[in-house]
Specification:
Elements lengths: L1 H12 L8 H23 L3 H9 L14 H7 L3 H9 L14 H8 L2 H9 L15 H6 L3 H10 L14 H7 L5 H12 L14 H7 L3 H10 L1
Length: about 230
């Protein structure tokens, strides 16, 4: 059996398909899955040399693991910047979402991985794709205080500054509601209003960002919002 697997791996790397029995075809398919998993694992670990080798041997660049995660997303999740770059240059699809509805831009944006965010934007990642909460990459970045990511998205992409997620929150609302009112969130609020954030969009009860800022005693943010009215 081991010899058959080795032979079928060789056929796979040569781009061939087995013409034999159903057993051989099953073994071949299992071999493909093992090769795909190895490829994704190498990407996850930042082993760019092995990733390039398997790409040259014909591995499917957008193959997914049991969670629907591609190699480029696995590399992103571990902040393997060089591996992500190589996979993008090789044509990896950045917009593929896994079972948690994460993709490269959504994950990198939420985690503050600015270099990967830049790579994704430069490669034309779709900014309209939403996460499991119905939000674009901008919204969690604003909530978590990732100033550089927010700025990058607003200045260098076509992200919708007024997108409303499933909770009926915009990036501005999340920055006020879930932020800490500190300097990072103050800067984010300023960036958002400077790039056209609609301050009249309230939550499901109609409470606006300014009203939330006053309620939370975020005086600096309240002043930014008042000045922008």
């Amino acid at each position: 059996m081991y010899r058959v697997i080795i032979i079928l791996f060789g056929l796979l790397l040569l781009g061939c398909q087995p013409d034999g029995s159903e057993e051989e075809k099953t073994i071949f398919q299992e071999g493909v899955k093992e090769l795909d998993q190895s490829f994704i694992t190498y990407a996850k670990n930042g082993n760019t040399e092995k990733v390039l080798q398997l790409l040259q041997q014909g591995v499917a660049i957008n193959a997914v693991d049991s969670d629907g995660t591609t190699a480029v997303l696995a590399a992103t999740q571990n902040n393997q910047i060089e591996t992500v770059k190589v996979l993008i240059e090789a044509g990896a699809d950045l917009d593929v979402q896994n079972d948690h509805l994460d993709n490269v831009l959504l994950y990198a944006g939420a985690e503050g991985m600015i270099e990967i965010v830049k790579l994704a934007i430069d490669a034309g990642a779709d900014t309209t794709i939403t996460n499991r909460f119905g939000g674009t990459a901008l919204i969690p970045a604003a909530e978590r205080g990732h100033v550089d990511v927010v700025k990058e998205l607003l200045v260098h992409s076509d992200v919708d500054v007024n997108h409303i997620n499933n909770l009926h929150w915009t990036a501005l609302l999340e920055a006020v509601l879930l932020g800490d009112g500190g300097t990072s969130h103050q800067e984010i609020v300023q960036l958002l209003v400077d790039h056209g954030a609609d301050m009249t969009i309230g939550d499901r009860e109609g409470v606006t960002p300014l009203e939330h800022a006053i309620k939370n005693d975020y005086s600096e943010i309240a002043e930014i919002l008042k000045a922008a009215e």
